[in-house]
Specification:
Aspartate Aminotransferase, domain 1; 3-stranded antiparallel beta sheet; Aspartate Aminotransferase, domain 2; binds 4'-deoxy-4'-aminopyridoxal-5'-phosphate; 378 residues; globular; 15% strand; 7-stranded mixed beta sheet; alpha/beta
């Protein structure tokens, strides 16, 4: 008797980022600069709202797409803060941005479709596309200051292209797309039946530069799915809460995957989401900006040719000149220098490593000192 499992489930590799993170964690005395989540705790008032909801016995099945009061709050927040106008029935509360991306891709992709992923990219996209039995098409940007080259994008499009994923600020580079880049992408896509998944989870963590999201191109509203999350701006990664917004006909179908995968997100956390939307977390952004400036200065002083990131909380550091692939380099740096960074290959880009500055000043200083000492041994 031969047992067979789903082909995609057998082929898709488990996250390299996670594997490497565990390797760092299990290396005695290692200093980790790996993690992609704020080192802050969830603000007290957000936790208090969830506790109060529990005490009120808000423990029953909530409505499928999110409580109407939360959908209303999200709709108002998006209009007020980001000038995005989606009615409550064009919003869906999800289990983090991860789930929003999962159901977004499941809703639009058929087997054999192609999805363009500008790289370096968060590894999740490639895996999710493969789980749809669709084909990820990588679009390298590292030779173009991490901006999409319009000619390369045009060349990547085929009659099977179903979607493109745009992440700005980006994980792992921290770069944001310029208005010029977005205009060029819009010019290419506006008359084509191609969906745009706007992964805007770092949208509120921008420290310099003029920020624009592709979500602003509302003439393409029928093809845009906007993905967002409570994880990063409110230090709520463990709560697993996000949301997505899309034109009514798409949103209508997104709920099929929502319904049959999770029914809904948990009930009592939804009140906390409303509190989060009203919370002032600029102190988190300010801390990241200060750390970005400090880390960038130190890396430049080490002679590393890093592109200054405008947002998120990562630096993508070029290491090709050391003549090793990124996994070998990072493993060596971990074993000998006792400092852990994530190999660039896990973001589909060789010759780099990702540093996260979601750490205290003391940890960052220690990690940077170790990187400096290790580089001198090469
Ligand atoms: N998109 C990007 C670009 C990310 O970096 C992450 C998390 N690292 C996610 C989505 C997933 O976030 P969530 O915690 O909301 O699932």
């Amino acid at each position: 008797m031969e047992l067979t499992l789903n082909r995609a489930a057998m082929q898709v590799e488990l996250s390299g980022i996670r594997r490497f993170t565990y390797l760092v964690r299990d290396t005695p005395g290692a200093c980790a600069l790996t993690i992609g989540e704020p080192d802050f705790n969830t603000p007290e008032e957000i936790k208090a709202a969830a506790k109060a909801a529990l005490d009120d016995n808000d423990t029953h099945y909530p409505p499928g797409n999110g409580y109407p009061y939360l959908l209303e709050a999200l709709s108002e927040y998006e209009a007020r803060e980001h000038d995005l106008h989606y009615s409550p029935d064009e919003i869906l509360v999800t289990v983090g941005a991860t789930h929003a991306l999962f159901i977004g891709l499941q809703t639009i992709c058929n087997p054999g479709d192609e999805v363009i992923i500008p790289t370096p990219a968060f590894g999740l996209y490639e895996a999710l596309v493969q789980l749809c039995a669709a084909t990820p098409v990588m679009l390298p940007t590292e030779n173009n200051r991490f901006q999409i080259d319009p000619e390369q994008l045009r060349a990547a499009i085929t009659d099977k292209t179903k979607a493109i994923v745009l992440t700005s600020p980006n994980n792992p580079t921290g770069c944001i797309y310029t208005k010029e880049t977005l205009d060029a992408v819009h010019d290419i896509l506006k008359d084509r039946p191609i969906f745009v998944l706007c992964d805007d989870v770092y949208r509120t963590l921008v420290y310099s530069g003029e920020y624009h999201s592709f979500s602003e191109y509302q003439d393409m509203r029928d093809r845009i799915i906007i993905i967002n999350s409570f994880s990063k701006p409110y230090a709520m990664t463990g709560w697993r809460l996000g949301w997505c917004m899309a034109d009514a006909p798409i949103r209508e179908r997104l709920q099929v995957f929502e319904q049959y995968s999770v029914t809904s997100v948990p009930s009592f956390v939804q009140r906390a989401c409303v509190t989060a939307l009203k919370s002032d977390t600029t102190y988190i952004r300010d801390a990241f900006k200060r750390r970005r400036d400090m880390v960038y200065r130190r890396l430049c002083d080490m002679g590393l040719d890093v592109q200054e990131p405008e947002g998120a909380f990562y630096m993508f550091i070029p290491i090709a000149r050391y003549g090793m692939d990124s996994v070998t380099f990072c493993e060596k740096m971990l074993a000998e220098g006792k400092v852990g960074l994530i190999p660039g290959v896990y973001f589909n880009t060789e010759g780099y490593m990702r540093l996260s500055y979601c750490y205290s000043d003391a940890d960052l200083t220690e990690g940077l000192d170790r990187i400096e000492r290790f580089l001198k041994t090469l």
